[in-house]
UniProtKB/TrEMBL annotation, chains A, B:
Pfam families reported in the protein's UniProt record: ThiC_Rad_SAM
Cofactor: [4Fe-4S] cluster
Source species of the chain: Taurinivorans muris
Domain of life: Bacteria
Keyword presence, Metal-binding: yes
EC number of this enzyme: 4.1.99.17
Record's keyword terms, sorted: 4Fe-4S, Iron, Iron-sulfur, Lyase, Metal-binding, S-adenosyl-L-methionine, Zinc
This protein's name: Phosphomethylpyrimidine synthase
Length: 429, 429
């Protein structure tokens, strides 16, 4: 990989030492991961003041926050505040999923104000040009898509979701309504549904698949990492692991091979709605079919009925996913399925994903995760509130909760009934 | 069990039909579960207007909310509002864990205003009488404990946490500070720490264990279910499954046998802080050692560093716990380890536990859980917002999120980019 992708090589040489220190892995281990394609280094040199990151276990599991406008809720200031919230709460990446307003200007603003990697879904900008004119998506000229990818790569987008793996056959699987074999939820990917509709209406193959080499050429030039979208991810627990999902994963695996040949980094996007007992097998089969490329999941959502609290249903799945090999968690917020997330939702979503990552990495015995717990427990046993605050995944939450009683030795739940104090005091006397 | 416990038999005969309908299990199945001790029916006839419930899979997994005063946060009105919140959000039981104020009066108020089962920890009332006088817990006369249990049974408490299983040896295990073998967090159970201190200071055995027959006699009279407390539950992930926890579980198992002989219903309280990869084994060994008595867990908390968000860390563990056999979830709120929960925390805690239960029961294929998902997905695919609201675990959250855009066909996240609509419209045309 590094020998074929000069832009990546230059970037890696510049940042390898810092990344090695942060990840607790040697430079050689990072290099080997990148070369094998089991790790990617997100970073487009066109992104000013960029701090690249590594994705791919045993590098730390990362958390992405989706932000951006929508037709019914569109306010650039609010999106800027979401970026600030992402900085405060420690998201690793953001994706600009805007679909309303001047998308170029919004994207430029976001790239300029966010110094870690940023991702996009170029299909949205193309979709907007068509849907805003009340034209059918079937009228899309595929040329628009490639131009959009090229433009965004030049703007400094570090990774792009490209739904290259949904085939015409896959679109039929996904849209199949046969009650015996078809899907319960059909196609729930925004970008994927547009491409599916285009293919079905025009009876043509996916242009991103047909002209994949063209994408590779653009992405290689700027070290844009291709996040191979899962247009056919299950949108309900019943659809997990079905023919539509797996047929797409097989195609994605073949695209991973072609990307590696070309020196272009790829990640695989994963489910979606998957019940607990199927998460490990679902993640493992995707990993196998896609040659252990880093996997980037939305959830997985362990149930469909938690609307209003999908960050929790997703944290359960995310934790199980990390334990099964997931490398990168896309957050879900309490607004999912219902509305555009606000600033509070963004914070809740990032924290929930960080909790999922920590739970999963603890189960895997990752050093940085275990060290955090050790620090917390040492402080907790000593009733050392500053120590607990520092060790907590969300120090601000601890400070806020403690505020009314911050000078007390014990907490306001138990007061003098504190169990830790009960035994500590015995030893003191 | 039913032949030995006449109070239970009378109560069961009265409610069996309604419980059978609610649980989707035949009266004979419930009866068999109660007789085997793998199910308990919570209900003390002294509790006015009581609606008893069943605990024990395959009965639905239930959710408990801990409420009650503490020395630093003490307001009866606020506790009453928490009860209303529990009704609104659908908790199955509450526990009054008050440790400050006029405990008898608080308890009577709670019993009168909550019609599903209510639990307590009688040790708290005894502890209060001693600690409020600045006396050491070692001065406790065990007689106080038995009198308190008797009084609360007469008041109508349906189940009581009694830490009968912590032995003098267990207290030593729990308080062991040897860095090679001792615990990281020691003893974190409020009631358990008082009994441990009493035993260690007085060099005597646990009076609740020594005089267990006396407890059985009181509980049999009013069908009080004994919730055998886990005084030695792990308070940090490192302590899970250690000698202290397992030695106590063995004792609890023997007490389960004695209870069954006497016709007294028992549940087992479980961890606590347990990392994901140890949850299934931890739950399974407790189930085995305690002869498949219903297990009632606090969490399990999959990490120690999620302070401020322990309801999420606990939902991950609760879901895995249910999948491994947990019957009854005690909620954790965002306030855990930091402060007394407020009304919002209570609601967040109940919802998180209900999500955990649904995730776990879905993984087990439970009919009622699957039916909810089917209803949600049918409505979601049809963009039927009323149907989604009805099927959601928290309908109020859906209504609140939808309010600003409630007349739109689609939601405010995607607007006209709605993937479901993209394919549905194709079929319409």
């Amino acid at each position: 990989m590094l020998s074929k992708n000069k832009v990546l090589k230059t970037l890696f040489d510049k940042h390898a030492k810092a990344l090695s220190a942060y990840e607790g892995l040697s430079v050689e281990e990072l290099e080997a991961g990148i070369n094998a394609g089991t790790m990617v280094m997100l970073g487009n040199p066109n992104h000013p003041n960029l701090e690249p990151i590594m994705i791919g276990q045993p590098a730390r599991v990362k958390v992405n926050a989706n932000i951006g406008t929508s037709p019914l809720t569109h306010c650039l200031d609010s999106e800027k505040n979401k970026i600030k919230a992402c900085v405060e709460v420690g998201a690793d990446t953001i994706m600009d999923l805007s679909i309303s307003g001047d998308l170029d200007s919004i994207r430029r603003t976001m790239i300029a104000s966010w110094h870690k990697p940023i991702g996009t879904v170029p299909m949205y900008a193309v979709g907007q040009q068509i849907l805003d004119k009340d034209m059918p998506i079937s009228s899309m000229d595929p040329e628009m898509l490639f131009k959009e990818v090229e433009k965004q790569a030049e703007q400094g987008v570090d990774y792009m979701t490209l739904h290259c793996g949904i085939t015409r056959k896959g679109a039929q699987f996904g849209d199949d309504t046969d009650p015996k074999y078809g899907r319960v939820m059909g196609i729930v990917s925004r970008g994927g549904s547009m491409l599916a509709r285009w293919m079905l209406d025009n009876d043509k193959e996916n242009p991103l698949l047909v002209n994949y080499d063209r994408l590779l050429e653009i992405c290689l030039k700027h070290n844009v990492t291709i996040s191979l979208g899962d247009a056919l991810r299950p949108g309900g627990g019943d659809d997990a692991g079905d023919a539509a999902q797996i047929e797409e994963a097989i195609t994605l695996g073949q695209l991973v091979r072609r990307s590696r040949e070309a020196g272009v980094q790829t990640m695989i996007e994963g489910p979606g709605h998957v019940r607990m007992h199927q998460i490990a097998s679902n993640i493992q089969i995707i990993k196998q079919l896609t040659y252990n490329a880093p996997i980037y999941v939305l959830g997985p959502l362990t149930m469909d009925s938690a609307a209003g609290h999908d960050h929790i249903a997703g944290a359960i799945g995310g934790a199980l996913g990390v334990q099964a090999g997931v490398d990168f968690l896309c957050y879900l917020t309490p607004a999912e399925h219902l509305a555009l997330p606000n600033v509070d939702d963004v914070m809740a979503g990032v924290i929930a994903s960080k909790i999922a990552a920590q739970a999963g990495e603890l189960a895997l015995g990752r050093k940085h995760a275990v060290e955090r717990e050790n620090a917390m427990n040492k402080a907790r046993k000593a009733l050392d509130w500053d120590g607990m605050t520092k060790a907590a995944l969300d120090p601000q939450a601890v400070i806020a909760r403690r505020a009314p009683h911050k000078d007390e030795e014990v907490c306001a739940m138990c007061g003098k009934f504190c169990a830790v104090k009960m035994l500590n005091d015995r030893r003191k006397h």
